[in-house]
Amino acid sequence: MILISVVLATFAAVTLWWTMHAWRTPETLAATRFAEPDGDHRLTFSLLLPARHEQAVLEHTIQRLLHSTHQGYEIIVIVGHDDPDTAAVAHAAAAKAPGRVLVVTDHNEVKNKPRALNTALPFVRGDVVGVFDAEDQVHPHLLEHVDHAFRTTGADVVQGGVQLINFHSSWYSLHNCLEYFFWFRSRLHLHADKGFIPLGGNTVFVRTDVLRTANGWDGTCLAEDCDLGVRLSSRGAKVVVAYEASLVTREETPDTIGSLLKQRTRWNQGFLQVLRKGEWRRLPLRQRVLARYTLTGPFLQAFSGVAIPIGVAVGVLADLPVGIALATFVPFVPMAANIVFQTIGLRDFGKQYRLRIRPRHYAWLLAGAFPYALLLSVAALRAVWREYSGRRDWELTTHVGAHLQNANAEAGAA
Amino acid sequence: MTTTSEPQQTTTTALIPKARGRLVETTLPRLPAPDHEQRPARVRRRALIGGEGLLAGALTTLVLTVLGVNISGYPMVNDDEGTYLAQAWAVANGQGLAHYTYWYDHPPLAWIQLAGLSWIPGLFGTEGSTVATTGRIAMLPVIAAVVLLVYVICRRLGMAVWPSAAALLVFGLSPLTVVMYRGVYLDTFAVVWMLAALALVLSPRRNLWHFTAAGAATAIAVLSKETMLVTLPAVVLALWQHTARSSTRPWAAGGYLSGLVLVGVFYPLYALLRGELFPGADHVSLIGAWQFQLGSRAGSGSVFTDGSIAGNLVGSWLDHDPYLLAGGLIATVVCLFVRRLRPPAVAGAILVLIACRPSGHLPVMYVVQLLPFFAIAVGGVLDLVGRRAPARRRLLRLAVPLVLAVLAATFVAPRWWAGNQVALTADYHDGYVAAARYLRDEVPDRANTTIVLDDVLWLECVDAGYRPERTIWFYKLDLDPAVAARLPNGWRDVDYLVSTPALRGDSTSLPAVNTLLTNSTVAAGFGEGEGRIEIRRINKENP
């Protein structure tokens, strides 16, 4: 019992330590931001935009990308041959902006995001490949900053920030938003510093030559972004992460608990696949340990998120000796500290994005912590079960555009 | 916003037609972190390494020598010291948190720490002293930490080296410090943790984990001695000031709060798990103990009333050292008006104000908490004086400390010398040593002897072979029903009573002790006058 407590406490403490990486000192926080660009545009970008049954949001996304202030970029929209609605929207956009927008049709029988991206790779003409999702809201100044970041840091990969915005939709959206906030704002920077990074699914920019040398994406992997990051890290690529609240790519959370569960199952299963592929074994020892820990992280987190509260309950209800009962509370300490920091994170999130955080949102945060941990555990179990029973198909999340409505409402209010 | 300069770049925007497919080679150096707007222009080196470390180390050694020589002979051992050591013994021997029912009189962390240090006296040998006074040796590392922390805090408050060193010496060599810090008091543990918290919130790197650790240290300080809580505002103020204009202030505050609450909560949690949080009919409770401490405890009068307990106590402090107390008080008032020196001054001011309240309990060791903050304030004022000298005139800058040193040597040093000479030579403890030897060697059948005594000799007797359950701390006869139950025939079950100053002082309010005193005769006596120790045999035949 005490041993379990020690293990859980250690894990929770490490998680807390990493989660808070960016806020360690004011200097670390300052270093996580994009540097102010010099106005020079030296690189050219090919922005890949895979879209599948996303005709509702695609048009808006393309229009926003076309507002970019950067001079040299093209947009490659990838649509499936069996998806005429989305294709129609894409072709209409291409007709309106000839030369800027290119439509590539994916003829693969089994469709998923990495295959779509690989289909587009031969058409890429830019120095740098950028990936976005069909529902992303991209800031017009982003490319300029990324251009500058590539040139000043000599990076092979630049990962920009992605942020779920619709925290007000439901209690789990709030937790989901905060997860993104801490992941992109803080944790990814630590991974970049340490030389092992699972990349994000979009707003990720890779030098085309590096990407081609790495043979693009893995079409069979459910977490192609994580896999790409691991493969590039293993080859010693330099990854730079930068987060700027005004420049992040805005996204929406899954619209139901069911789809959140599916999405998370997919990611977890993807992490498992990457773990089993073993590409990370090529890394030097320290990164290898980090890799193993990161890739199993979702499962440990899911386990401890449930085990710690249960341990506390046992400590209170069962008739244990006082010493042992106190020991069961030890892992709760970093966990509770995490909740305190999440509360501050929520406040900070509201300030940075000029969103009003109401008391009920803080209540959701506190009351939802355990149910959300439960949800993550179910997703983790589901992922393990699916992986070992050989079900490796792609469960897609649908998008209704809640973050866009939010933006419109905001614009209306302002 | 950015500080990276790129002289090679032209300012005109290069228009690149879309997608040429060839990478423009960069000629710029790789810059790891492009944005350093928040780094202070001049980073002061504050680490205790090199020459400065040697200086602080040497001064601390000097102070420790003055404190350590004759530590078991002076001052007179206090009953509380025996209590805390006995409780530490109980912890170290797995007998729970106290050698009697633990009733939440004080949080237990201080003697748990003391139990952890109890191996230290063994390194020095215990010849010619009792367990109670050798226990003082275990405190030496804690005192060393207090002394060093005084220096570190001074430096982190932005003071120069010499005022910081002066603060260290003023604190460590004051006869009042020597007499108070030699005792085994919970306050010393509380002080060391509170000073650590203060030093941590003043962390030059403003690291989040330092702030979190500061919160934990604050909680440990309060769980070592609950009255330390009143200095919490000083640490919070330091945290607030130190994170001003920093992007991480809310996080720092959150870290501090987490550390404070999440460590502090373990104490009520312990009570809760034992079912002793709320008052009840037949058990002790944490909240009940708080009610007693805050409400029903007898006051010691006002410090301003002649002849009150509190008045006498302050008088005895002033006898030991008027300079640090008066100088510290003035310096505290001055420092309240200087932003960077305000945190320690706030702590000092709060402690002074609480001591001055018209009624309430003022314990003997209260001044232990006050002294380091006074010393830091004195250092702060010296620093202010030093800064008055114009920076360009180096001679003048050197003259200021020299003049101050001469003044101190003329006016303060003689008195301190006399006070510390007593501390280094006087033996106030030989009566206890002789009594302990008698109890160890002259009493037959010790395992079956029931003896009532004060806590100074309790541990000594248990060590000499008396059974813990038959060795009774005199207080408990009247106050602990579990102890009274061990004596079915009342006072006639007791064989010996050891009458010490502490016992006689409290016997008027303890009827059972009084009965023992009247129904006993002296078997052996040591010393004269008020400090006399008598070993009295109980006359069981008395009616």
TrEMBL record, chain A:
Q: Which Gene3D superfamilies match?
A: Spore Coat Polysaccharide Biosynthesis Protein SpsA, Chain A (3.90.550.10)
Similarity field: Belongs to the glycosyltransferase 2 family.
Keyword annotations for this protein?
Answer: Glycosyltransferase, Membrane, Transferase, Transmembrane, Transmembrane helix
Query: What InterPro entries has UniProt attached to this entry?
Result: Nucleotide-diphossugar_trans (IPR029044)
Name this polypeptide is given: Cellulose synthase/poly-beta-1,6-N-acetylglucosamine synthase-like glycosyltransferase
Q: What are the TM regions of this chain, as residue ranges?
A: 320-341, 362-385
Sorted alphabetically, which Pfam families does this protein's record hold?
Glyco_tranf_2_3 (PF13641)
SUPFAM superfamilies, per this entry?
Nucleotide-diphospho-sugar transferases (SSF53448)
Annotated GO molecular function terms are: glycosyltransferase activity
From TrEMBL, chain B:
According to its UniProt record, where is this protein mainly located? Answer: membrane
Which chain regions cross the lipid bilayer? Answer: 47-71, 137-153, 159-179, 184-202, 251-270, 366-386, 398-417
Q: Name one GO cellular component term.
A: plasma membrane
Signal peptide start-end: none
* Record localization: Cell membrane
Q: Which GO terms describe its biological process?
A: lipopolysaccharide biosynthetic process
Q: How does it sit in the membrane?
A: Multi-pass membrane protein
Please provide the record's keywords in A-Z order: Cell membrane, Glycosyltransferase, Membrane, Transferase, Transmembrane, Transmembrane helix
Give this protein's Gene Ontology molecular function annotations.
pentosyltransferase activity
Q: What is this protein called?
A: Dolichyl-phosphate-mannose-protein mannosyltransferase
Organism per entry: Actinoplanes xinjiangensis
What are the leading ranks of the lineage? Bacteria, Bacillati, Actinomycetota, Actinomycetes, Micromonosporales
